[in-house]
# Entry
Amino acid sequence: MPVISFANAKGGAGKTTAALLLATELAGQGHRVAIIDCDPQQWITQWAEISGPLHNLEVISQVSVASLQCHLREMRDQVDFFVIDLAGARDALVTTAIGLSDHVMIPVQGSAMDAKGAAQILDLLAMMKEKANLAIPHSVVLTRVTSMVTTKALLAIKGLLAARGVNVLNTPIGERIAFKELFETGGTLRTLDAARVSNLDKARENAAAFAQEVVRLMPARVVRSGKSRLVASGRLAA
Ligand SMILES: Nc1ncnc2c1ncn2[C@@H]1O[C@H](COP(=O)(O)OP(=O)(O)OP(=O)(O)O)[C@@H](O)[C@H]1O
Ligand SMILES: [Mg+2]
# Structure
């Protein structure tokens, strides 16, 4: 059961939104998902409270450095994916969560390029590799991308990160009202009302493509999907 964490030392990069999109998409596909809410603002915990019980999805709140490992250990047999939402910081909980992750997703705003916050996480990953011989696969996901952000600009960002050996997801997360709306109304993109939320179909397509790309990054393993067991194969990116 892969542990996927969302980290960027800068606040507001889109970690919580991306974590919720991934978790709800995976749960909607039939995977059992636990979101570990390590964001001190507890947005996902609040989202869960207004959403009510959701099939295949559990949210763990009030997590500490000491309790994180216990949650992962105790729930590993009941969960297909752990999704960890982290604070916009580089503190002990962020470092511990990254050390326990199978893949670290680093959301970077396509328009603002949170270079410093992302670089702090990349430096931390490099230090873990150097000092502890712990190579944790990681990828940047561009977020809040609008039509104002040109393909040329995105390619330039990808080029810069690729030069540092950083994998960048092909699917950027767009700036979408629907993604904000989830936190207002609760529920998932599947339960939002298309008559009330503009471009909901585009938002759903975007979240599905993002989740699909993340799943492909996971090492090959046996995952439970609905009632059947299937082998999900994927490639490992660093
Ligand atoms: N793809 C998106 N489309 C529309 N709004 C977004 C998107 N991603 C993030 N936002 C908005 O940007 C703000 C910050 O996003 P979010 O809370 O996901 O960032 P964060 O990195 O988790 O922040 P923090 O470091 O404070 O925890 C929120 O108001 C959120 O609704
Ligand atoms: Mg957050």
User: Anything to note?
Assistant: The first strand starts at residue 3 and ends at 6. Residues 15-16, 39, 41, 43, 85 surround magnesium ion (ligand 2) (CB under 6 Å). The helical segments are 15-28, 43-51, 65-75, 92-99, 115-132, 151-163, 177-185, 200-217. The chain has one domain: 3-232.
